[in-house]
Design brief:
Blueprint (H helix, E strand, L loop, with lengths): L14 H4 L12 H8 L9 H5 L6 H9 L3 H11 L3 H7 L21 H15 L12 E5 L3 H12 L3 E5 L19 H14 L2 E3 L7 H7 L4 E4 L5 E2 L12 E3 H9 L19 E5 L3 H12 L4 E5 L11 H9 L3 E3 L2 E8 L5 E14 L5 E5 L5 E4 L2 E4 L3 E2 L19 E3 L2 H4 L4 H19 L4 H5 L1
Parallel strand pairs: 1-2, 1-4, 2-3, 4-16, 6-14, 7-8, 7-14, 8-9
Antiparallel strand pairs: 5-15, 10-11, 11-12, 11-13
The structure holds flavin-adenine dinucleotide (FAD).
Length: 452
């Protein structure tokens, strides 16, 4: 193999600056940097990066175009498989997906596929003319929920000439994308994506909670329904004092801090300033890191992440933990909450915790934490954020994974409401699968064959 040059580092906001703003942390490649990084790719045949991509993006094919200085052609190829590369390139945990499988990565740092995808999609989006949908759409489709699963389905069907209406119970569409912190996903990128769908003819009906799916089919005359209702019910531990004021789920904390603009759901008030407040975030996944990093930007006096296992057993991405630490987060590992206490009988002021030690591996294969006898200690906090993960509100929906069809005729589903919490790219893939399943249904394929 020819000499492999070092990976090109993107421009990144330095930690002291980014602690004080919500601007995107990673600022991406210039054209010269993208060209130089693209040259590191050896364009493998049977590329493992492509297999590892949930959307099976044809990575060597579009990087080859970039190597030749043709970002527009690279974008065209990327769009053949990805409905939202400008979002996935910013949000995918590439180190576990494409870059984790890169052949260069066996001996060197992997090709920066995520940053190249971001460069190509930002260039391509800026240059591409707005797409228009069909003038006389044939079938009417209702998508319930407006996260990446429904958005991918809507895009695919609108391009195929179907009329899609997306119903969202909250005041603005986007699902979780709307409250992922802006330092990871700038709001204008999401808005531009939604504008593109509107231009394609997709209709959005916000503040509309769907309770009866059958009503959409029989009452409102939709030909098919897609359930993309996500899995955003926060897991709340059953601990003494958990309902004290100042204890928020990660969903409520992130929505109130990151929604951006008026009209918050559930009548919530925005959180804009945490100056002087000590914040404890409980949990060790990516959403815990989002909360920690948001609390730092809002001026939290001391922001501590408390996690019951050790650092090596954290479920989230290493780069998120590193970024949080650079920004000033403190970590307490092998510590678990036992109760919440209040000085005034109303608001939380202290978290009672137990030290933990790691025992035998549990069902997930990770060593399970066990409390250490007599190890109780307290930590002070005026705000506690519970980031213990998410569940499906209605219980997981069952589908045929090859088509997205449920057992109920005309009803498809996909995304987190089927799989439980996953990724933007896997939710988008599920939306595409269901869209293709719907097109087969509209072409006359019997339901039993689709439902499998
Ligand atoms: C804080 C956080 C950070 C994350 N960060 C990342 C990341 O960096 N990278 C990554 O790949 N993944 C990330 N994820 C995971 C990713 O966001 C989800 O896997 C993805 O959004 C799931 O998409 P979805 O379309 O299935 O559902 P969602 O995005 O959850 O959208 C579902 C929508 O349906 C609406 N809804 C529910 N019921 C109804 C109803 N009855 N009527 C109308 N509307 C309804 C909800 O209000 C919601 O807007 C993160 C998740 C969270 C919570």
């Amino acid at each position: 193999m020819a000499e492999v040059k070092p990976r090109i580092r993107p421009r990144v906001q330095p930690p002291p600056a980014r602690r004080r703003n919500f601007d995107e942390v990673v600022q991406g490649y210039t054209a010269e940097e993208a060209l130089a990084e693209a040259q590191r790719c050896i364009l493998c045949r049977n590329a493992r990066c492509q297999t590892a991509c949930p959307l099976t993006n044809q990575i060597p094919r579009w990087i080859a175009e970039l190597q030749q200085g043709r970002p527009q052609e690279a974008y065209r190829i990327l769009r053949e498989t990805s409905p939202m590369p400008e979002l996935c390139s910013r949000l995918c945990p590439q180190e576990r997906l494409c870059e984790g499988s890169c052949a260069i990565g066996i001996k060197h740092e992997p090709v920066a596929i995520g940053l190249l995808e971001r460069f190509v999609s930002d260039q391509g989006r800026a240059a591409a003319a707005g797409e228009n949908g069909a003038t006389s759409p044939s079938k009417r489709v209702a998508a319930v929920g407006s996260g990446p699963a429904s958005l991918a389905l809507a895009q695919c069907l609108a391009r195929a000439g179907q009329a899609v209406t997306v119903f969202e119970r909250w005041p603005h569409p986007g699902g979780v994308l709307r409250w992922i912190p802006r330092f990871k996903l700038p709001r204008e990128i999401l808005e531009a994506h939604l504008d593109g769908l509107t231009a394609l003819g997709v209709a959005f009906r916000e503040k509309t909670e769907i309770r009866e799916v059958q009503q959409l089919l029989t009452g409102e005359g939709f030909d098919a329904v897609f359930l993309g209702i996500g899995a955003s019910r926060p897991s709340v531990p059953n601990l003494p004092g958990v309902s004290l004021e100042g204890i928020l789920s990660s969903t409520e904390f992130l929505v109130r801090s990151c929604w951006g603009g008026p009209d918050l759901p559930n009548g919530w008030q925005p959180i804009t300033d945490l100056a002087g407040r000590r914040v404890v975030v409980l949990g060790g996944g990516d959403s815990a890191m989002d909360c920690v990093r948001t609390a730092i930007r809002l001026g939290g006096a001391q922001v501590t992440c408390l996690y019951r296992r050790d650092e090596a057993n954290m479920p989230g991405s290493r780069k998120e933990v590193k970024a949080a630490r650079e920004e000033g987060a403190e970590f307490q590992f092998l510590a678990s909450p036992a109760a919440f206490h209040s000085a005034d009988g109303r608001s939380v002021s202290r978290v009672e915790c137990l030290r933990m030690e790691l025992g035998a591996p549990d069902a997930s294969g990770r060593r399970s934490p066990q409390p250490v006898a007599g190890s109780a200690f307290e930590t002070e906090a005026e705000l506690v954020v519970l980031a213990f993960g998410y569940e499906v509100e209605t219980g997981a929906v069952k589908i045929n994974p090859a088509t997205g069809a449920t057992r109920e005729q005309g009803v498809f589903a996909g995304g987190d409401c089927v799989t439980g919490p996953s990724l933007v790219s896997t939710a988008a893939r599920a939306g595409l699968t269901a869209a293709r399943g719907m097109l087969r249904y509209f072409a006359g394929e019997p339901w039993d064959a689709l439902a499998g």
